[in-house]
Amino acid sequence: MPPLNTALAGAHLPVVDDQPDQLRLLIDVLRNAGCRISVGFDGSQAYQRALAISPDLILMDVRMPRMDGFAACRLLAADPRTSAIPVIFLTVAGDLDERLNGLEIGAVDYVLKPFDAAEVLARIRVHLMRAGGKREVQDDGFAVDTTGNGVLVAPPFSICRRD
């Protein structure tokens, strides 16, 4: 049986949080798992990074200045270029209505802080495996959602091939 972190090795994950201490914790956990990491401090940066790099999954706080995680998740879900990117909320916003709202607007999971590193890695792994194969690049340079939801990214946006 392959090591559990094999699914995480090389995965590109933006981590978006306005709290530097929380960012440091997540960065340490994810780097040790072999992930490539981008950092953002608000929802607007999360959206812009998703457009620029087409990450494998986004870890994002809910309560942030300028643009909160809910608004960013709505933008990501509405944009065909980013709608297939799984979003996991990792936040102290633990009210049931907030959690349900996050899931209803497009997040695939919701983890409460303080978090357990093993649980976060397990949830990321599950969602990466589920998303694997749903986004692929055709020879003409278009990224297609193989679930039937249409074109995700068209040139001139850069697209990374997944082998």
Average pLDDT number: 82
Largest beta-sheet characterization = 5 strands, parallel
Output the strand order for the largest sheet: 2-1-3-4-5
Strand content: 15-25%
**Residue share in helix:** 25-40%
Order of helices and strands: EHEHEHEHEHEEE
Distance between the termini: 21 Å
Which class of secondary structure composition applies to the elements?
Answer: alpha/beta
Unreliable stretches (pLDDT < 50, length at least 5) are 133-163
Strand element count: 8
CATH topology: Rossmann fold
Shape, principal axes of CA atoms: globular
Q: Can you tell me the number of structural domains?
A: 1
**Do you know the CATH architecture?**
3-Layer(aba) Sandwich
CATH superfamily: Response regulator
Number of discrete helical segments: 5
Radius of gyration: 15 Å
CATH class: Alpha Beta
Care to describe what's here?
- The chain has 163 residues and is an alpha/beta fold.
- Helix content is 36%, strand content 20%.
- It has one domain (8-134): Response regulator (Rossmann fold, 3-Layer(aba) Sandwich).
- The protein contains 5 helices and 8 strands, in the order E-H-E-H-E-H-E-H-E-H-E-E-E.
- The strands form 2 sheets. A 5-stranded parallel beta sheet has the order 2-1-3-4-5, with helices on both faces. The chain has a 3-stranded antiparallel beta sheet with strand order 6-7-8, with no helix packed on it.
- Strand 7 and strand 8 (150-153) form a beta hairpin.
- Helix 2 (43-53) runs parallel beside helix 3 (69-78).
